[in-house]
Each structure stands twice: as structure tokens, then as C-alpha cells.
Amino acid sequence: MHFLRLVFALSSASIAAAWTTYIVPHSGGNDDTLALAAALSANKALATNATILFQTGITYNILTPIAFPKFQNVIVSIQGNITYAADVKKTQAIVASSSFPGHWFTFSGTNVTLTGSQDPNWGWVNANGQKWWDAMQKVSSRVNRPHGWSFKGVQTGEIVNMKLWQPVAWSFSVTGSNNVHIHNNTIIAVSYSSSFPSNTDGFDAEGTNLVFENNIVYNGDDCLAVGSPASNIVFRNSYCNGGHGLSIGSLGKGGSVANVQDILIENVVMENSVYGARFKSWTGGKGTAKNVTWRDITLINVQLPIYITQHYWDQDVSQGSTNSSYQTSTYLDTFTFQNFQGTIDDSKGNGVTGSTGKEVVIFDLFQGTSKSLIAKDISTTTVSGSNVMVMCDSSTVSNDVGFKCWDGQYEPTIAGA
């Protein structure tokens, strides 16, 4: 697998150009978005060779979303704190509006840097997610939730040292971008009540030549979710706690064509997670996911370390079914799961119909939809001390997958040892 080296230095012409620093003004308890948006509209120079600075020592009120202009060589520096609106209903109305840009913060352009503070007390973005999670016990409060930060179509960029506190849902989205480095960020989507922090994805990735590293994520959904199209994606040297795993997908919804290739996920600690490595595609999907590797994954009380399913469904709408008239899904070509070490939490099941809750691997596949799948160097134990199990239908695989493919005890083969 070959990954292009990321280059984040500005061109010599850009360095030579005049540089502008704009300090975002703050006005008591008012919405600071308004003055910022007005300044960006009035002063076009702020879109090129500029720093937009949220000052340390100030807590800004970004109570309405902002779609920044198309940037060229711009740094947005979050040195102060930021807070979202606390009123759930008012925010829902904003998100429901036809003018909502899709995310609370939206970036586009070339050579775009979003940087937070290295001061532990500053640079925090508080989205008041707890209010939403508590309100979401009512179905009406599950709609029109604000997505957080979007890098959309960015050509060369960086997201570094950002700190998100209780994001409502879907933290960072990198879509249609190329050559972006996302590193040293912290996401804490932890509920302090019985309410679950639903859909609090850490990083959603679609694009090319994206590197995610040295990130810390506490959340209630995918730590990483790679969508389509995506190629040359690296996620490494990170820590994920409490979520739904290191995921490819979901892919192929509504019969759409997926194109995902050359994905490397390595050296990640997964703790108290539902899944470790996960692939999910919708029945009836098309296209291919090719050359995907998860390796050197440390498991600490993970319910299901390795899970492939081609029967994904919207869990908020209906229960999934393996009885489908399509019997097809996104094709899998060359998937490797290597060096998974640690413990399986078998105390509460893993949510997969027919499983024992003690599985280290579940391959839930249609016939003729995959090739070259292998799980090797797997060393796990259950918390209870029970035997480690697998679920796998041998009629759906075309090679030695590294373990005896059956519904039974995990028994590595020569290919998996």
C-alpha cells in the first residue's frame, strides 16, 4: 500500500505575500457569529493569506452556523473557548432551515488550517450535547441535530489540537478533500446521565490522501467511519473509548455504488467499545471495498473485535434481516485483520442475532461477494474466561480466512497463526 506524503508548507509565493490577522470580536452574551460573518463578507482579503483568531481568555458564543468563504492559505486558530446555543428547539429550527449549510462550521479551499490551543484550559468547543442527549429520549429531539465541523473539498489542509466537549452528533467530517492531516485532536462525547450520546461519530472520512493520527476519542458511535468514495486513508496511533469501532461504511445504501480502496488502520487502542474493526454495507449495494487493513489493534473490554456484515440496516427504523431478495452487497476484495490482542467483554452480548456474545470474529456475508479475507495473529480472551468463538459460513468465503470458518470455537489455521 502506497500513501502519498503529505505536504503542508505554504508556497514561497504565499509566504512572500502580506499576511493579515483578524481577531474575532466578542460581545457579551450575544451571538458572535454575526460580527464574524459580516467581517468576512466586507473584507475579502480575509479569505487569502490570513489568520482568523479566536483569542485566548474569551469564551465566544457561536450560536448560529458559519460557512467560511473559500480560503487560500488561511489559518483559523481557536485559542479561546467556543460554545454553541443551549436551546435545543431553536437550534433545531436553524438546522431545519433551507439556508443551513450542513455543518455548524464549514471550510473549503486550498491550504486551510484549523488549529486549537495546546493550553488545557482553552481551545475547547462546548456544543452542549448533554442537553440534546437528555432531550433525545423523545423521538422529536432526534431530528435536526447540528453536525459539527466540515472540511469540504479542501485541497491540502490540517486539523490539529482541536478539543470538542460534548458534541451533539457527528464531530468532524472530511468530505471530497485531498491531502489533509488530522492529528492531535480530542473528542469527549461522554454523557453524565443515563442518556446515550447517539451518533457522536469521531471522524467521518471521504476523500483521498487523508492521514488521521494521535487522536483521542470518547464517544457513542464510530470512532472512524470511512465512506465512499475514499482512497489512501490512514488512521493510526490513536485511542478510542466507548464507541462503535473503526468502521468502513456504511456503504451501498439504496443500491448506490461504493468505491473504497487502500485503507490502513493501525496501532489503535479500543477500550469499552462495541466493535473493534467493523465493515458494514447495505443489502443491495454495489461497488467494491478493496485493500483494507486493520493491524496492531489493542482490545480492552471490546464486545466484538472483528465484524463484517453485508446486512446493515437503520437501527432507528427497523430490525435487519438476512432474508433478502437481492442477495448482493458491496464486494469485498483483500481485507486483512492482523495482530488483534486483548479482552472480549462477553458480559452483555454483542447484538448480533444468533451469536453467543463471545465471538472474536463474525463474518456475515452473502455468497460470491468477497475474496482474500484473512484474520491472523489473533490473541484474545473473554472477560469471563469462556472459550472464544467465531461465526462464519464457509460457503461464503473463497479462501482460508485464518481460522476455522464455522459457528463454533475459534481455531486458528496455518494461514492465521
Automatic annotation (TrEMBL):
<feature type="active site">
    <location>
        <position position="244"/>
    </location>
</feature>
<dbReference type="GO" id="GO:0071555">
    <property type="term" value="P:cell wall organization"/>
</dbReference>
<dbReference type="InterPro" id="IPR000743">
    <property type="entry name" value="Glyco_hydro_28"/>
</dbReference>
<dbReference type="InterPro" id="IPR012334">
    <property type="entry name" value="Pectin_lyas_fold"/>
</dbReference>
<keyword id="KW-0961">Cell wall biogenesis/degradation</keyword>
<keyword id="KW-0677">Repeat</keyword>
<keyword id="KW-1015">Disulfide bond</keyword>
<dbReference type="GO" id="GO:0005576">
    <property type="term" value="C:extracellular region"/>
</dbReference>
<keyword id="KW-0378">Hydrolase</keyword>
<feature type="signal peptide">
    <location>
        <begin position="1"/>
        <end position="18"/>
    </location>
</feature>
<protein>
    <recommendedName>
        <fullName>galacturonan 1,4-alpha-galacturonidase</fullName>
        <ecNumber>3.2.1.67</ecNumber>
    </recommendedName>
</protein>
<dbReference type="InterPro" id="IPR006626">
    <property type="entry name" value="PbH1"/>
</dbReference>
<dbReference type="Pfam" id="PF00295">
    <property type="entry name" value="Glyco_hydro_28"/>
</dbReference>
<dbReference type="GO" id="GO:0016829">
    <property type="term" value="F:lyase activity"/>
</dbReference>
<keyword id="KW-0732">Signal</keyword>
<keyword id="KW-0325">Glycoprotein</keyword>
<keyword id="KW-0964">Secreted</keyword>
<dbReference type="GO" id="GO:0045490">
    <property type="term" value="P:pectin catabolic process"/>
</dbReference>
<dbReference type="GO" id="GO:0047911">
    <property type="term" value="F:galacturan 1,4-alpha-galacturonidase activity"/>
</dbReference>
<dbReference type="GO" id="GO:0004650">
    <property type="term" value="F:polygalacturonase activity"/>
</dbReference>
<comment type="function">
    <text>Specific in hydrolyzing the terminal glycosidic bond of polygalacturonic acid and oligogalacturonates.</text>
</comment>
<comment type="similarity">
    <text>Belongs to the glycosyl hydrolase 28 family.</text>
</comment>
<keyword id="KW-0456">Lyase</keyword>
<keyword id="KW-0326">Glycosidase</keyword>
<dbReference type="InterPro" id="IPR011050">
    <property type="entry name" value="Pectin_lyase_fold/virulence"/>
</dbReference>
